[in-house]
Design brief:
The complex is a heterotrimer of chains A (157), B (776) and C (441).
Chain A lengths: L3 H11 L11 H12 L4 H11 L3 H10 L11 E6 L2 H4 L3 H12 L5 E2 L5 E6 L11 E3 L3 E3 L4 H10 L2
Parallel strand pairs in A: 1-3
Antiparallel strand pairs in A: 1-4, 2-3, 4-5
Chain B lengths: L2 E4 L2 E4 L6 H8 L22 E4 L6 E2 L9 E4 L3 H16 L15 H9 L16 E2 L4 E3 L10 H10 L4 E4 L6 E4 L12 H5 L6 E2 L12 E6 L8 E7 L2 E7 L12 H5 L14 E4 L2 E4 L2 H19 L4 E5 L5 H13 L5 E2 L31 E5 L3 H4 L1 H12 L3 E6 L9 E6 L5 H15 L15 H11 L4 E5 L1 H4 L4 H15 L2 E4 L8 H4 L11 H6 L4 E5 L3 H4 L3 H10 L2 E6 L11 E4 L8 E4 L5 E4 L12 H11 L10 H8 L2 H6 L20 E3 L28 E3 L1 H7 L6 E6 L2 E9 L7 E3 L18 E4 L1
Parallel strand pairs in B: 1-5, 16-17, 16-23, 18-19, 18-21, 19-20, 21-22, 23-24, 24-25, 28-32, 29-31
Antiparallel strand pairs in B: 1-2, 3-4, 3-5, 6-7, 7-10, 8-9, 11-12, 12-13, 14-15, 14-25, 26-27, 30-31, 30-33
Helix pairs in contact in B: 2-3, 7-19, 8-19, 8-20, 11-12, 11-14
Chain C lengths: L20 H6 L4 H8 L4 H11 L11 H6 L10 E6 L8 H8 L1 H15 L3 E6 L4 H16 L15 E6 L9 H8 L23 E5 H5 L1 H7 L1 H7 L7 E8 L5 E6 L2 E2 H7 L9 E5 L8 E2 H5 L2 E2 L1 H7 L7 E6 L4 H15 L5 H18 L5 H14 L7 H26 L22
Parallel strand pairs in C: 1-2, 1-4, 2-3, 5-11
Antiparallel strand pairs in C: 5-6, 7-10, 8-9, 8-11
Helix pairs in contact in C: 2-10, 3-6, 3-11, 5-6, 10-11, 15-16, 15-18, 16-17, 16-18, 17-18
The chains are: A alpha+beta (157), B alpha/beta (776), C alpha/beta (441).
The structure holds flavin mononucleotide (FMN), iron/sulfur cluster and FE2/S2 (inorganic) cluster.
The site of iron/sulfur cluster (SF4) has 15 residues of chain C, from helix 16 and helix 18.
Chain lengths: 157, 776, 441
């Protein structure tokens, strides 16, 4: 269900917690599963539940509570733009508008070619670098002027 | 022990008590939704906000611990303002559909909104719409927009049912109660979530749109299905049972019901109900009136007695029959010269008869189970046979009670089990003997001579260590133990063990009157035949009370053969079933909702009830039918005017209590050699336990009612050359059943688990013993 | 070199690459730990020093750190936990990220000393989900510390044992709330718990637990090295030390600045390069989005310390200073903040779950020209009905902006209602004043 590499990473997370608290690793485990699969299908969550000895519904609660999980398949790249007030005051909202315009999609939509899913983000703790956006949850791009946004789009295949 | 003042009244409370507890003790009602006395505190609804002197903000009564000298105001302007604002928030997204809501009339939100709501809404935005869900045949989640997110249902699953099947997904305003992506809710206690839901979000699927709650009359009753005797509120409209709810009884069912107790009522008005007396005349069935029917039955019985003597007759009763019915049946048989009467239809070892000191029972009060610190359960499908007793043990286990098991299957009990020994059924006595020996050794007591050769294994050692380390131990024999071919030996071993430990021991009990049957003397006296003997050595005539022989007996093969070969079979039954195939007279009797009667539960508690509706069609209470039969046969002592008279003739509650005794005397401990063939393990599935449940439509659609399969471990599958899911022929004696094989690696070696009490397995033989399996 | 300003002590001498253990040691790092263990300072002595320093929690509430540490039950024999809150998600706040990416060992050292003072053997640092690079960097720093014997059994041969792990969030503001954070570490939804019981008696896995913000722990080594009195002297009585302020919005050089508590706001604004485009200051949210907004002219008269800002009618909070100039539409600004709380409400308690959506929808309507006269009072009333009636402080955090925006800028809301349009800019227009800002640290 998950690769040996992913399981190794999950086991590393489990080891951080007391022996009887495997469930503590669920947030990481789901993120790792998502890294591998791109999104969290029912079977994936079920597997994680089994792996950690949790009720599947408890895994689902977690998966639907935290923002950065993909509960549906999306584009090859997920762009999450912070539009919260501090960022918006320094161009965050404009950056989002620019992306919408360039990609021809709204928030929570995927381009027709399946390349990009656009998301509205909340504060990423990087307001000083506004506009900021995240690529696939992990790569933070700062000071995203229009030029830099266009560059980024050109780079994402 | 702090003292608190609420609304000017003082009370002293336990350390750790909350303001809500204190208010309850004072009889002061504080509005609430998420708080429930049996659930953990969530403090999420905020309806219970109260004013606490010196606190900078209103505090939730349910979660605020009482401090010495605290002054609380629950109805001050300040408190009311807070409560009203919460009510407003709860209502902004709540649909205004009370007129069509099933909860209407018994809705906490509706009730409280009268006192705390505003008449017009200040909320001008669009209301939230929540998509409906399908979680199976019992609970309707059609109207989830009504949910107020109190999470009682979620907490119930986690904390009471022991399995989290519902959760709250998403967050904020988008939070929704769901099951895991399309899963059904399968807990045998699931219906309690409906009671817990303070609004009409979770409702009863079978009851949906059937009636408005205020049209229903509420009557008390007692559940006939298991040995607990759960107290019921039966709701009735137009002489029909519409719904069943728990009647709180802290000593028995607390505020819960099992789904079996709750939904079995659907079987009461089944198509299969027998509503008219019927006689087979020249091979043809005819509807007749009671007079004709009873005359014919009396004549038939008399003839059989004349032709074959009392020994030629036999009477079998289901243990779900009332005390009065069982008593009159015994009296009737004795009146016509036969001691052949029995209600222990699934028992196979009767060697304790005449040697037991009294009626076998639980050995203690149900409520006292919680006070035990060690428990040993032997041979029990605990969770499905005794859903609410299992819940008591689940809650006790959380408080540190150690549950030890000796059993033939390893189903998930949803209880943390301290130690277990899972062995083939015929090894149960040997395993229990190991525990006895280990305990004796640990206690430096002499080991009974018969157990000298026993070698103590690791599992038994662990169990013994657990038991020895406790202060208060209970040993319970389950249905598999009671039905076991070595039942008496198991009982003697339990008695031995209890002696060593200073523990209590007893039987969990199969049915509503498994204790009552003894007290009513529906058991053979000296020279009489027990249930098994009556079938193994067929009689010429039988009287059946509430019995479906192919489903209710230890050996359905033998039972059906005996019925088919008999000259005269009288069925007193609420249902036709397959009786027309073998019976000669069908007498329609009333199920528990249509008659008065009494059940004596596992702890020996005598609980009488009245009929809640009039008998359907021409059905009559069985105690009356038996009374008239007695009269027609000219027997002494059949002139009762009421079921209470019958009951009182059996004994006062005190007298009955005095007849409870688990001790057996004059039988030696002796371990039998185990046989070598494939062994059958048979349980009575939860929704196959009796004639009513078998006809309860919604229960029959649940996962627990799935057709039996031939379960075995993978080693045995390999040995037999069968695959998971493959059809196999299971043979026992002269009969066979074609079932799908299924794999359960927790089953012991060389065992095949095939459920009894189901049409699919009714052609098989005894519930225990050897069988063979071959691929189809 | 990263420049946090002339007063910087915690963030001094950093260049973005010198975060490794050897660099930290070269700056005198782990000296405080060696002092504590070498001099066999008692736990009480460590706590006393922290108490003396006047160090107040940097996560938002400003609770005295030393006092919090003294709540941990001393006689308790089972496991106890230490938790660091690096779930920096309060809009406007971005200081903790700098600590863990530029000076992670300072935090690690601070936590080890805290663990020593409270007798905890295991700690976790919960890191905001959106900062993956920083999380992995922090894990590397932990590995360095383990390899050097600063973490693990028998630290520096003292017999003291402490293990520290990093935990990564995955996108939920509410996990910054301390009990939501604990639930999250336990592998659940981050739904805050009702208090009491407080974490000091019932925390992670039900065990006694102390939670502090990243910056709080990070100040501890300096305090031990230089003494509590010295730290206190950096600031004002009851407001000890320096503090990192994250300046965002309409300034020329947004970024983090470390200044002594009590520094005038005007000084900080100057450090941040002054108002962008030389425009007039209109409003400042001085302590993260949950703090009440203050008009610019009031703020210009206020000093940056807990007590002064409280006196001015707001909170120092997390030290996130959001600056808005005259072109800012306050209705639109509030709309965005209200949306945030609506989105981030965990959903368990009624007033917050239902009220945040209600407030957002009303502000949204007003911004989009569909406001009604009665909305203005209703908004305040709904905010009042949320505040103080929820399980956690997110309810208050959602209510305070609404109340303060209406309190100070009611005429803009009124204008929207009356004229169905904005008085300062085209709809959506003002946010664009952004481009081309210089960068600070
Ligand atoms: C909604 C909400 C969000 C919070 N977010 C954070 C946060 O991101 N970081 C933080 O340190 N504290 C946050 N807090 C405060 C914490 O609950 C807690 O008070 C703090 O971590 C304690 O550390 P301190 O005493 O060192 O400040 C938040 C509180 C609330 C109510
Ligand atoms: S105030 Fe909001 S975030 Fe806090 S517990 Fe209640 S619903 Fe959750
Ligand atoms: S009953 Fe107290 S908050 Fe719900």
């Amino acid at each position: 269900m998950l690769s040996a590499e992913s399981l190794k990473r999950i086991d590393r997370e489990i080891a951080k917690f007391p022996g009887d608290q495997k469930q503590s690793a669920v947030i990481a485990a789901l993120a790792i599963a998502q890294d591998e699969k791109g999104w969290l299908a029912t079977e994936t969550m079920d597997f994680v539940a089994q792996y950690l000895g949790m009720p599947p519904i408890a895994v689902y609660e977690v998966a639907s509570f935290y923002n950065m999980y993909n509960l549906e398949p999306g584009g090859r790249h997920k762009l999450t733009v912070c539009t919260n007030l501090p960022c918006a005051l320094s161009g965050g909202a404009d950056a989002a508008e620019h992306l919408k315009h360039r990609l021809g999609v709204g928030f929570n939509e995927t381009t027709a070619d399946g390349r990009v899913t656009l998301k509205q983000g909340e504060c990423m703790g990087a307001c000083g670098d506004a506009p900021v956006l995240l690529v696939n949850n992990k790569r933070m791009c700062s000071n995203m002027s229009r030029e830099k946004l266009d560059q980024l789009l050109a780079e994402l295949k | 022990m702090p003292t608190v003042e609420i609304n000017g009244r003082q009370i002293e409370v336990q350390n750790g008590a909350t303001v809500m507890d204190a208010a309850n003790a004072l009889g002061i009602a504080i509005p609430h939704f998420c708080y429930h006395k049996k659930l953990s505190i969530a403090a999420n609804c905020r309806m219970c906000l109260v004013q606490v002197e010196k606190a900078p903000k209103p505090l939730p009564a349910c979660a605020t611990p009482v401090m010495e000298g605290m002054k609380v105001f629950t109805e001050s302007e300040y408190a009311r303002t807070a409560q009203k604002s919460v009510m407003e928030f709860l209502l902004i997204n709540h649909p205004l559909d009370c007129p069509i809501c099933d909860q209407g009339g018994e809705c906490l939100l509706q009730d409280l909104s009268v006192g705390y709501g505003k008449s017009d809404s200040r909320y001008q935005e669009e209301k939230r719409v929540v998509f409906h869900k399908n979680i199976g045949p019992l609970i309707s989640m059609e109207e989830m927009s009504r949910c107020i997110h109190c999470t009682r249902c979620v907490r119930f699953g986690q904390e009471i049912a022991g399995v989290m099947e519902l959760g709250m997904m998403g967050r904020g305003e988008h939070s929704e109660i769901v099951s895991f992506v399309g899963n059904t809710v399968d807990s045998e206690l699931s219906g309690n979530m409906i009671d817990l839901c303070p609004v009409g979000a979770l409702t009863s699927k079978p009851f949906r749109y059937k009636a408005r709650t205020w049209e229903l009359a509420r009557r008390k009753s007692v559940s006939p299905h298991d040995s607990l005797g759960s107290n019921l509120v039966v709701q009735v409209m137009a002489n029909k049972v519409m719904r069943v709810l728990p009647l709180e009884n802290e000593g028995l069912n607390e505020c819960w019901l099992s789904d079996r107790d709750r939904y079995s009522y659907e079987g009461l008005n089944s198509e299969d109900r027998l509503t008219q007396p019927m006689l087979k005349v020249d091979g043809k069935w005819q509807e007749v009136d009671w007079q004709q029917a009873l005359a014919a039955v009396a004549k038939g019985l008399k003839n059989a007695q004349t032709d074959h003597g009392g020994q030629g007759l036999g009477a079998l009763a289901a243990p779900h029959s009332t005390l009065e019915e069982l008593h009159l049946l015994g009296k009737l048989m004795r009146g016509i010269g036969s001691e052949n009467v029995d209600f222990r239809l699934r028992q196979s070892d009767f060697s304790a008869d005449q040697k037991q000191a009294g009626a076998p029972w639980l050995g203690m009060k149900v409520a006292d189970i919680g006070g035990l610190d060690r428990v040993l359960v032997v041979g029990s499908f605990l969770r499905k046979d005794h859903p609410l007793l299992a819940n008591r043990m689940r809650q006790s286990a959380k408080r540190g009670q150690q549950l030890n098991l000796i059993h033939a299957t390893d189903d998930n009990l949803l209880i943390s089990v301290a130690n277990k020994a899972i062995v083939p059924p015929q090894a149960l006595p040997e395993t229990l003997a190991q525990v006895v020996k280990a305990v004796a050794e640990a206690k430096q007591q002499p080991v009974p001579a018969a157990l000298a050769g026993v070698t103590v294994g690791a599992d038994a050692k662990n169990i013994a260590a657990s038991l020895v380390s406790g202060a208060k131990t209970g040993i319970f024999l389950g249905n598999l133990a009671a039905q076991h071919a070595q039942a008496t030996q198991l009982r003697l071993l339990a008695q031995e063990l209890a002696g060593l430990l200073g523990a209590s021991y007893g039987f969990l009990g199969e049915a509503a009157n498994s204790v009552g049957g003894y007290l009513a003397q529906a058991v053979p006296g000296a020279g009489g035949l027990n249930a098994a003997a009556m079938l193994d050595e067929p009689r010429k005539a039988y009287v059946l009370l509430n019995v479906e022989p192919e489903l209710d007996c230890q050996n359905p093969q033998a039972a059906m053969k005996a019925m088919q070969d008999a000259e005269f079979v009288i069925c007193l039954s609420a249902y036709k079933g397959s009786a027309p195939d073998y019976a000669n007279a069908l007498l329609p009797i009333a199920p528990f909702t249509e008659t008065s009667g009494t059940f004596v539960n596992a702890e020996g508690r005598r609980q009488s009830f009245n009929g809640v509706v009039k008998p359907l069609g021409d059905a009559r209470p069985a105690w009356k039918v038996l009374r008239v039969l007695g009269n027609l046969l000219g027997l002494e002592g059949f002139d009762y005017d009421s079921s209470e008279q019958v009951r009182d003739a059996i004994g006062t509650p005190e007298q009955l209590a005095g007849r409870l005794d688990n001790r057996v005397n004059g039988i030696a401990l002796q371990l039998a050699a185990a046989s070598t063939g494939l062994q059958r393990i048979a349980e009575v599935p939860i929704y196959a336990s009796d004639a009513i449940v078998r006809r309860a439509g919604s229960l029959q659609k649940t996962r627990d009612a799935a057709a039996p399969r031939a379960w075995m471990n993978s080693a045995l599958m390999t040995k037999l050359g069968v695959k998971d899911g493959q059809a196999v022929k299971v043979k026992q004696g002269a009969g066979a059943a074609v079932l799908n094989a299924a794999c359960d690696d927790r089953l012991p070696r060389d065992c095949v688990r095939v459920a009894a009490a189901h049409p699919a397995s009714k052609d098989l033989g005894p519930m225990s013993g050897e069988l063979s399996v071959e691929p189809q | 070199m990263l420049d946090y300003g002339p007063d910087a002590i915690l963030m001094k001498g950093l260049d973005g690459t010198n975060w490794h253990l050897k660099d930290y040691e070269a700056r005198g790092g782990y000296g405080a730990l060696k002092k504590v263990l070498g001099e066999k300072m008692t736990a009480d002595a460590v706590i006393a020093e922290v108490k003396k320093s006047g160090l107040r929690g940097r996560g938002g509430a400003g609770f005295p750190a030393g006092l919090k540490w003294s709540f941990m039950p001393k006689q308790y024999t089972g496991p106890k936990y230490l938790v660091c809150n690096t779930d920096e998600g309060e809009p406007g706040t971005f200081k903790d990220r700098d600590i863990i990416r530029y000076n992670p060992h300072m935090l690690i050292e601070g936590m080890i000393i805290a663990a020593y003072a409270m007798g905890t053997a295991v700690g976790y640092n919960y890191i905001h989900g959106e900062i993956w690079a920083e999380y992995t960097l922090f894990e590397q720093a932990l590995d360095e510390a383990r390899a050097a014997g600063y973490l693990g059994e028998n630290i520096l041969g003292s017999g003291f044992a402490f293990q520290l792990h990093a935990v990564h969030g995955w996108g939920a503001y509410i996990c910054g709330e301390e009990t939501g954070l604990l639930e999250s570490i336990e592998g659940k939804k981050g739904q805050p718990r009702f208090k009491p019981p407080f974490p000091a008696s019932f925390g992670l896995y039900g065990k006694p637990t102390t939670i502090n913000n990243t910056e709080t722990f990070a100040a501890v080594p300096w305090i031990i090295n230089n003494g509590g009195d010295a730290f206190l002297a950096l600031g004002k009585p009851n407001n000890g030390g320096t503090k990192l302020f994250s300046v965002s919005g309409h300034v020329n050089r947004p970024g983090n600045y470390e200044v002594r508590l009590g520094t005038p706001f005007a000084t900080l604004l100057e450090m941040a390069g002054g108002m962008r485009g030389g425009r007039k200051i209109k409003a400042v949210i001085p302590g993260g989005s949950s703090a009440p907004v203050l008009p610019g002219h009031i703020m210009m008269q206020t000093d940056l310390d807990y007590d002064s800002i409280a006196k001015a009618g707001s909170m120092l909070g997390s030290g996130a200073v959001i600056v808005m100039d005259e072109t800012t539409c306050m209705v639109r600004a509030l709309e965005r903040l209200s949306y945030f709380y609506f989105e981030e409400s965990c959903g368990q308690c009624t007033p917050c779950r239902e009220g945040t959506g209600w407030m957002y929808r009303m502000v949204h309507r007003i911004e989009h020209g569909k406001g009604r006269q009665e909305d203005l009072d209703l908004l305040t009333n709904v905010a009042d009905n949320i505040a103080g009636r929820t399980i956690c402080a997110l309810g208050d955090a959602a209510a305070l902006p609404v109340k303060s925006f209406l309190n100070h800028f009611r005429e803009e809301f009124q204008y929207h209602v009356d004229n169905k349009r904005c008085m300062v800019s085209e709809p959506g227009g003002y946010f664009t004043a952004a481009a081309g800002t210089e960068k600070a640290a």
